[in-house]
Amino acid sequence: MSGEIQTSDDLRENIIAAIRTCFDPEIPVNVYDLGLIYGIDIDAEKNVRIDMTLTSPNCPSIESLPMEIQQKAESVDGVKSVKIELIWDPPFHTGLMSDEAKLQLGLM
Question: Which residue intervals define the domain MIP18 family-like in the entry (predicted)?
């Protein structure tokens, strides 16, 4: 964004777009639309905190998926740092999924 001031909303949308390129290896839906991202907080210095969950605490992707999401978010222009927090409460359920994800998985 040469010469343009990037707002937190713009940065947030770019982070979401990057996260949407991450897929749960067992479910053919991106992690954002799957409902695994609970929150994205950006401070004034462009440090990002992403609160997320997995489909279960026994998810085989417990090591790799958060790291992939962190790397994708860190690759967004303007992001200074990214911290991932795994959260188990509330537990994942299909009500967290976007309508597009539900449609893709035949739940609608």
Answer: 12-84
Cα–Cα distance, 78 to 8 (Å, whole number): 10
pTM of the model: 0.88
Q: Which residue segments constitute the domains of the chain, with CATH numbers given?
A: 8-104 (3.30.300.130)
Helix and strand tally (H, E) in the chain? Answer: 4, 3
- If one counts every other C-beta atom within 10 angstroms of the C-beta of residue 20, the result is 15
- With tokens 């001031």, the residue in question is 5
Residues 1-41: pLDDT tens digits? 444 556 788 999 999 999 999 998 888 899 999 999 999 99
pLDDT in tens, 59-91: 888 889 999 999 999 999 999 999 999 999 999
Q: Give the contacts of 67 (CB within 8 A, at least 6 positions apart).
A: 84
Count the Cβ atoms, other than its own, within 10 Å of residue 46. Answer: 15
